[in-house]
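S.,

Sequence below, as promised.
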Amino acid sequence: MIRPEALHPLRATKQVEDFLKDCRFGQTERGSFVATILAPVPPEVQPPPAGLDRSRFELQEPFPRQVTTRLMSSLGLVSQAIQAGKPGQLPNAVTRGISANLCDALVLMRPPGDESCLDLHMSWARSRPHPPADVPQSVSFPQEHFPAIEEVGRQLRTRATVGPERSRGKVLSVKKALRPLLPEIAGWMVIAAEVGGAPARVKVVLRAHDFASACDALRNDWWVEVTGTIRHDVKAREYVLSDASGFRMDRWVRP
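The prediction came back faster than expected:
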């Protein structure tokens, strides 16, 4: 919505953080596994101009309404693609709100039981006009949908690889690879760097020569710079930099 991506950084923008702080849990329902989340939205004080196209209308909506509209549109798209037997289309729908984060969130909410399903329902505030008719109000995901959702998320995380880029930061830890899959891999280090402008832990796979330098940097509290290909490891909550090259230690300068 703000900036569609296959994989969003771990750290949210201030606008997103403010929205999440405003959300509240609503009244629970007896005898069911239901979570109600209230997302406050400002009331409409002036109707939009007649004939305003949908894209401009959505941009003029307040951020909370943009979030909920995009969420339901994206969920509907996921459901429709899987029901139609075309989940392979979803990795190409990043501009429509499909992301690895969305898929991971759905998988985390997967209910137990072969006959269970995940139902999501949106009640729109009466103080604002309802979204366009093609935005679903309810979406349901049966158990058989989740393997496809998980695979779409995996593909999007792979696609999120941004290509060679320079990373710089302080070495947090160094570990030797005892049984490496590739003989040239000596181990790895973890540095505190930035990815996409947000602080992140970056795990850097190292060859023998660079591994020795990384040990020196850790021991002497030096910063390092290295170029490589970054991907995101969701389970470990860190980024992994492979094909490392141009390793350089910064002994004097601090950011």
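The longest helix spans residues 63-83.

Coffee later?
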